[in-house]
């Protein structure tokens, strides 16, 4: 698979390394690609680096791991027809006041990108857990929730979660991504699959009333 990474920092850098280690072609990007030579070397022969525009053009599936404010100006035309994994979280103190014109952060992003399949994943897990896996330091089975409206794209993302050495847990539609956005009960949790499913069922039941 050809994977593009927009925002090759703590999250994007570690996940890109994990997917490159698994044999996927990974195109890291940055506003300063020349500063990522160390990361590309670490990621190995399946990795390259360039601009965000180049990463989008190269890839079938793209991970964004940038400040939420920056996601609001992702290029809708270039991303049309592609799948975008959104890992960002919205922090007003960092991102500034943004009018979230939807019920959740990811739905607001999806509105900006009407021809892109948006899947929410990785935002609820700590970067240090991803880095530890990229460094081969842990194999602890921790659950990562994912949500989206396209079953085939979700299946692909579930596979990428497994390749990143986590356990995928399907939270349902993109709207359900609100359960695990920052500040919500399923956010920032180191849970087993069983515990994650139990907590997901509890919040879904509560939401139904
Ligand atoms: N850290 C965590 O534990 C964690 C966990 C889950 C989700 N998240 C969320 O995931 C996102 C990335 O977090 P991170 O910890 O990986 O951050 P990070 O280490 O700071 O990396 C973010 C990358 O985004 C790029 N970037 C920064 N400002 C940008 C802008 N205005 N436009 C385009 N690119 C920009 C930077 O790359 P260049 O300077 O090279 O362009 C930077 O390397 C954030 O939304 C964060 O809230 C973080």
How would you explain this protein's 3D organization?
This protein has ten helices and eight strands. It is an alpha/beta fold and 209 residues long. It has a single domain (2-207), classed as Rossmann fold (3-Layer(aba) Sandwich). Strands 3-2-1-4-5-6-7-8 form an eight-stranded mixed β-sheet, sandwiched between helices. Helix 1 runs parallel beside helix 2 (37-43) and helix 1 (10-21) packs parallel to helix 8 (127-134). The longest helix has 15 residues, at 193-207. The protein is globular. The mean pLDDT is 97. NADP nicotinamide-adenine-dinucleotide phosphate binds next to helix 1 and helix 4. The site of NADP nicotinamide-adenine-dinucleotide phosphate (NAP) has 20 residues, from helix 1 and helix 4.
What layout of secondary structure does this protein have?
Blueprint lengths: L1 E5 L3 H12 L3 E5 L7 H7 L3 E4 L1 H7 L2 E4 L3 H4 L4 H4 L3 E4 L5 H4 L9 H8 L4 E5 L5 H8 L8 E5 L3 H13 L3 E4 L22 H15 L2
Parallel strand pairs: 1-2, 1-4, 2-3, 4-5, 5-6, 7-8
Antiparallel strand pairs: 6-7
Helix pairs in contact: 1-2, 1-8
Bound molecules: NADP nicotinamide-adenine-dinucleotide phosphate (NAP).
Features of this protein?
209 residues; alpha/beta; Rossmann fold; eight-stranded mixed beta sheet; 10 helices; binds NADP nicotinamide-adenine-dinucleotide phosphate
> Cα distance, first to last residue?
41 Å
Would you tell me which CATH topology applies? Answer: Rossmann fold
Question: What portion of residues is helical?
Answer: 25-40%
User: Quick one: how many beta strands?
Assistant: 8
Average pLDDT rating: 97
- From the alpha-carbon coordinates, what is the Rg to the nearest angstrom? 16 Å
The count of domains is 1
CATH architecture: 3-Layer(aba) Sandwich
What is the number of helical segments per DSSP (H or I, 4+ residues)? 10
What is the element string, with H for helices and E for strands?
A: EHEHEHEHHEHHEHEHEH
Give the CATH H-level superfamily: NAD(P)-binding Rossmann-like Domain
* Uncertain stretches of 5 or more adjacent residues: none
What best-fitting shape do the alpha-carbon axes yield? globular
Strand content: 15-25%
Would you tell me the structural class of the helices and strands? alpha/beta
Major sheet characteristics: 8 strands, mixed
The kinds of small molecule bound in this structure are:
NADP nicotinamide-adenine-dinucleotide phosphate
CATH first level = Alpha Beta
| Strand order in space, largest sheet | 3-2-1-4-5-6-7-8
């Amino acid at each position: 698979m050809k994977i593009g990474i927009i925002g090759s920092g703590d999250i994007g850098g570690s996940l890109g390394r994990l997917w490159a280690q698994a044999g996927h072609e990974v195109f890291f990007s940055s506003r300063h690609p020349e500063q990522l030579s160390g990361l590309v070397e670490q990621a190995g022969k399946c990795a390259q680096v360039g601009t965000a525009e180049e990463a989008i053009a190269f890839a079938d599936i793209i991970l964004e791991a940038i400040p939420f404010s920056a996601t609001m100006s992702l290029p809708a035309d270039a991303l049309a027809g592609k799948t975008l994994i959104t890992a960002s979280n919205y922090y007003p103190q960092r991102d500034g006041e943004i009018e979230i014109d939807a019920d959740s952060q990811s739905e607001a992003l999806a509105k900006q990108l009407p021809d892109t399949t948006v899947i929410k994943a990785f935002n609820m897990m700590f970067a240090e857990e991803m880095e530890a896996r990229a460094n081969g330091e842990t194999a602890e089975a921790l659950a990562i929730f994912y949500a989206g409206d396209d079953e085939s794209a979700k299946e692909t993302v579930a596979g990428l979660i497994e390749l990143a050495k986590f356990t995928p847990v399907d939270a349902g539609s993109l709207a359900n991504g609100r359960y695990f956005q920052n500040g919500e009960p399923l956010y920032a949790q180191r849970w087993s699959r069983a515990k994650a499913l139990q907590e997901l069922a509890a919040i879904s039941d509560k939401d139904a009333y």
